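Write out this protein's structure.
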Amino acid sequence: MLGSILSLISAAFFGLNSAAIRRAVLTGSVLQGVAISVPLGVPVFVIASLMAGSFGLLWEFSGNDYILLSVGGIIHFGFGRYSNYRATKAMGANLVRPIQQWNVILSLALAMWFLDETLGPLRVFGIILLLVGPLIMVRDHGKFSAKVQKNNEDNENNVAVFEPNYTEGITFAVFSALGFGSSAIFIRAAIGDMGITAGITGGIVSYGAAAIIILLVIAHPKRLRHVLSMSATSAKWFLFSAFTIAISQMLRFMALAVAPVSVVAPIQQTTVIFQVIFAWFMNREHEAFGIWVMLGIISSFFGAVALSISTEFVIELFNLPPEIIEIINIQWP
């Protein structure tokens, strides 16, 4: 129960973060975004672990745990986040999210392979809905456009037309789904059932490993000048997104410390609902809210719900005949 609650709160912060990222990449670059958000995640996790009294656990991980946490962090915070920013900049967060929902399929597949978790009919149904979502979304791809108000201090009234770049957007959305989906396995394998505070402390290692890679990338003089040249508007939104993503990731690590991937990963897909809500209030002029986009999001959401609900819960909620109960109790492998 605690893992589910933490996952849901984390999803809400992820939704807020998606809206903040969309605003940030309108005037800033992807490199500027990761240069701020990844390194700043380290002190947030350090402070959280000190407040939780778990900082000492940092020295109790095994060598293998450090490797797993580092690999998971680089994949998620480095590769996955960079790809997410590229996809969001190319076609907006609303269009990216249904494709990113595929990361739960990868998480479940890897959890079955490495962590001996199982797959049942409800999860198969959820996977189908997740796969259908993006197909619905792009049905009207030739017509998608939305007004973009450039939030730029030097040109506040410059109105442009947002035409999604589907090639770049879909490519990097898939990359981000791969990064986000596979990282959970490494984190879960490292911290296992060590407890909720171990999840916070493990985040220091993961964020730290990713931060080192990012800092090495921007150490080149040309890239460093580019990062330092960002506008005040971009810096404001990137800082806000860095804070929200750090909080959401901290809650995610805590959830993974007390619940299996098969519970945490699906529930976090409800991010899409929070994202649409926040996008409507914050980015109404910067996102696509077409009917096919919403239908794709709805399909993805119900797919995540189907993946989240346990077979036992469905049996208790509905008065199902024995034949149906026998079918939904099938487990594979």
